[in-house]
Amino acid sequence: MMRATIEFDDALYRRLKVEAARRGRTLRDLVTEGVRHVLDTPASPNTATGTAAWQPTWFGSLGVYAAGVDDHSMRAVKRSTASARAINRSS
Question: What is the pTM of this model?
Answer without folding.
Answer: 0.47
